[in-house]
Structures are given as structure tokens and as C-alpha cells.
Amino acid sequence: MYFDTHAHYDDEAFQEDRDALVSGLPARGISLVLNPGSDVSSSRQAVALADRYSFLYAAVGVHPHEAGQMEASDLERLQELSCHSKVMAIGEIGLDYFYNYSPREIQKECFRRQMALAEQNKLPAIIHDREAHADCLEIIRSFPNVRGVLHCYSGSLEMAKTLLDLGWFLSFNGAITFKNARRAPEVIRYMPADRLMLETDAPYLTPTPYRGKRNDSGYLPLVAQAIAQIRDIPAEEVAAFTAENGKRLFGIPSQAGTRSSGLF
Ligand code: NI
């Protein structure tokens, strides 16, 4: 079984065929999906999708790109949404110093407030960290009761070791299949099997040789194959342990995604 721990089916890229695509995922071997939000509206859509599909779970949060637009009332909305039984995490939240769509100080404040929300609700966090490694780590360290995942991990091996010591998970997607993937193989080789997770970040980051096309969870086996090659183990093994890790981190019942639990 495969667990896609990060896919954005609320994205407008799926406007035309969302239901057909999502309902077809189990038949393509994708047993579980976690759909994070990127603002209040997309978090609501993620929750609506989770209501509709038994195998799809949601996270709610405001992405650093949207931090500049965040209002105090948004935190209240996120708090309300986080009480829903299929909201398993706060995310995606974090810092993006590559695009800098929002001022850094505002990004940091928005990130801290949502880490506090995760702590308060005893939920894990899904972190987006682009070119902001030091500040991300500093904020993560200031919330020792919060665990979570650095999604699309792009930091150094040294930072990975620190995060693993703090009890965090790392997830990887199609970016590791790109020719310019530099640091990820080293981290993937080093990582203990019980902290690694798979994701697509659909509709973005479609793995080679489909790079450039719209991504969806059906491409997840290509990510598993890339990891299997790096670790020199069978891809089925990667699929199995990464799915178990996702269930454990997000508190998803162990029978979820198996055939006996039904699809609807
Ligand atoms: Ni994302």
C-alpha cells in the first residue's frame, strides 16, 4: 500500500476532474492521502474532501506564501477546523525565503502562531522550509512538544540529524528524481527507516520522466522506486514502511486504507 502524505487536491489544477481522479486512486494502489491546506479556504476544501473520501485525510493551515494575508480571525477558523475528526495535522506552515511572497517577520509570526495551535491541539505539524533552514530549525526547537514532518526536505544531512534527534520525520517527492537533486540522496541513505515518508506534492513536482505534467498520487511509486534504489532495497518495502510511518505520525488507525475498511 502507498500513503501519499502530501497532495493538494483542493488545487484548481484538479478543477475539471477532481472527483474522477481522487475516487480512482485506491484502484491505482494509493490507499491513503493526506491533503494539507494553504489558507483558510483551501483548508476548508481539504476538510470537505476528507468528508467525501474515507481514505483521504486533511491538514489545516496557512502557507508562508499566504502569511501576509493572514488575519487574527483565520487562527480561530483553523482552530474550529482542527477539531474535525479527519484533520490530522496543522499544515502546511513554515517559511519560504526563496519566493519571499510575504515579509520574513510576518512569515515567522504566522509560523509560530500555528505551531502554538499544533501544540494546543496535540496535532503534528507539516512544515514547508525553502531556503529558510536556520530560522525554521530555531522555531521548531522553540516548540519541543510539537512533532511533525519537514515536507519536500531540502536541508543538509547535518540539519536532518538534528531534526531526527528532535523526533521529527522527513518526506520526499518527485524532486529527488530530478538531475539536480544533490543533497537528498545522502540524507535518504542515512535516515532510519522509521522516519521516512513519501509524498507527491501534487499538482507540483511530477517525477521524471513525467516532469512538467500535472502530478497526482498515481506517480508515487516512482518516488518509492528512487528511494529503493538509493537504499538498495525493494520498492515494496519502501512503500510499506513509509505508509506505516505516516499512519503513526498522523494518528491514522492502522486498519485504514486496507481493503476491509472499505473505500466509502
Ligand atoms: Ni505543499
In CATH terms, the superfamily is: Metal-dependent hydrolases
Number of helices: 9
Overall number of domains = 1
Percent helix range: 25-40%
Named at the architecture level, the CATH assignment is Alpha-Beta Barrel
- Highest CATH level, the class: Alpha Beta
Task: Output the strand order for the largest sheet.
Answer: 1-2-3-4-5-6-7-8
Beginning-to-end CA distance, first to last residue: 17 Å
Give average pLDDT, whole number: 95
The gross shape turns out to be globular
Structural class: alpha/beta
Largest sheet: 8 strands, parallel
CA-atom Rg in angstroms: 17 Å
Q: Kindly report the CATH topology.
A: TIM Barrel
The succession of helices and strands, N to C, reads: EHEHEHEHEHEHEHEHH
Which strand-content bin applies to the residues?
15-25%
Poorly predicted parts: 260-264
DSSP strand count:
8
Which hetero ligands occur in this complex? nickel (II) ion
Spell out the key features of this protein:
eight-stranded parallel beta sheet; 9 helices; alpha/beta; disordered C terminus; 16% strand; TIM Barrel; binds nickel (II) ion; 264 residues
